[in-house]
Specification:
This protein has 165 residues and is mainly α. 68% of the residues lie in helices and 0% in strands. The chain is globular. The relative contact order is 0.18.
């Protein structure tokens, strides 16, 4: 059940029973897992020994990333207030905030004046997906009924692809 009609074509968000912190945690896990999964396509692995060490490095990286996740709340809150101030729609702002936070991985290359490596791009994509996961967990606030169905279909496709992994 997508929500209830308020006025015009705007639909009230689904009833969300979970705490925003839990939604944020799920978004961070989705973003980090996506970034690590995508980074595997850019790392060469020809032998089993490097594969085992990469699994360990990715596992440790995930733990480190989840440790830093609470620190990201400060820029996320500032970006959220900024997007609300300039009237960016809620779903777009959540997804863009995720992508902007993921783009923090571009900073080392930008400050060095070099081209960013593919791993940084993986984190941008992971951040965009994490923003969508957060928005979805909050019940798609501010979405019209037509777009609500499209977002549900995209979410269902993500669920199906996740189950196939």
């Amino acid at each position: 059940m997508p929500g209830e009609r308020i006025e015009g074509d705007i639909v009230a968000p689904r009833t969300v029973s979970e705490h925003p912190v839990w939604s944020y945690f799920k978004a961070c896990v989705a973003a980090f897992a996506t970034a690590i999964l995508l980074s595997g396509f850019f790392m060469d692995s020809n032998a089993p020994a490097p594969f085992a060490s990469r699994i360990f490095v990715n596992f440790v990286s995930g733990i480190v990333m989840m440790t830093f996740a609470p620190l990201l709340l400060i820029p996320i809150r500032l970006l959220s207030d900024l997007f609300r101030l300039v009237s960016v729609p809620r779903g777009v702002s959540d997804i863009l905030i995720g992508g902007l936070v993921g783009s923090l991985m571009l900073l080392p290359a930008i400050t060095e004046g070099t081209a960013p490596d593919p791993l940084a791009g993986c984190f941008v994509v992971g951040g965009l997906l994490g923003g969508f996961v957060f928005w979805r967990a909050r019940g798609y606030p501010g979405l019209s009924s037509h777009h609500h169905r499209m977002a549900d279909q995209f979410g269902a496709a993500l669920d199906k692809s996740r189950q196939q992994l």
